[in-house]
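Handout, page 2. Input:
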Amino acid sequence: MGELRGALSRSDLPAPRGDRHPLIELMLTRVAERSRRGARTDQAVVALAIEGGGLRGVVSGGMCLLLEKVGLIDAVDVIYGTSSGALNGSFTAAGQAALGSTNYLGTGNPQVANPFRVLTGRALLDLDFLFEQLIFSRTPYDAEGLAAGPSFRAIGVSLTTSELAVLRDFADVEELMVAVRASCSVPLLSDAPVSFRGQPMSDGSLIEPMPFPTALAEGATHVLVLRSRPADHRMDAYPRALIEIARRTAHPAIAPLLRDRPERYNADAERLESARGDEPGLLQIAQQPGTASLPLVATPSVGQLELSGRAIRQGLLTGVTAAAAAFDLPPVDVRWQPEVYGTA
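Output:
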């Protein structure tokens, strides 16, 4: 990457010039004008929609880290997150994207994800350890930051109605954590469904893994979608055997939701690919093939249950680099515990 220079900041952002994507120009203009939520001079509503995907969420977490470091979160009005994208989004809304990204090193250990636990009848994912030991005890949310930042909404699925649920307007930090945990409750991998305000919930990615349709439906005029998967990723249909296991062992609503999930995902991915012409307020940031000037944009895939610290660090850098490229920033690197630096 070359010799590191100083940590990135707001001063590294390019000036708006009128020829970039309309959403990029709008966000750069807001930062340049020091626009603040509640006192905007434009009529736009800018949302982040953050994809998760288990430990793959470290990639979209890296994108949040870059946006935070250069002050672009000031241009955002509301954040939507699904699954580990909800984890990223909640910390970003609190002004703690850098702190939140460190959780991925904590989750990449057998105490959180351990395939051998299924041999003893326990869930593969231990969300109790993740939320109670790692997050609540070691990286707690900043309540004042949450009050001052963009509003945050987690995407879940109600297992009572089999419909998407937007979890919002939290009474306190503890209720926000329950909502994020509900959004992360992966069918067949984690413990029993989490209850949020009396409703059993499951992972929001069963219906909307990239929550931009909800952001648009709720009034966002511009949505920046932060992807954990490459732009050309499409889901294959799940094996029938897996659907049958879900039918027999999970909540009755899970099997039909799993069956339909790949078609939903692929339709949303196609919509994002064609958005520039049809929906100019919609833009995705996703990892792309590397180039000579941006050699670290591409990376070997981070697994949904990734245990390699090296792969997790590389995934974070992938997200940081993709976001930097989207905003015409020079090549960047990350020092852990993470600080974003420009490179000479």
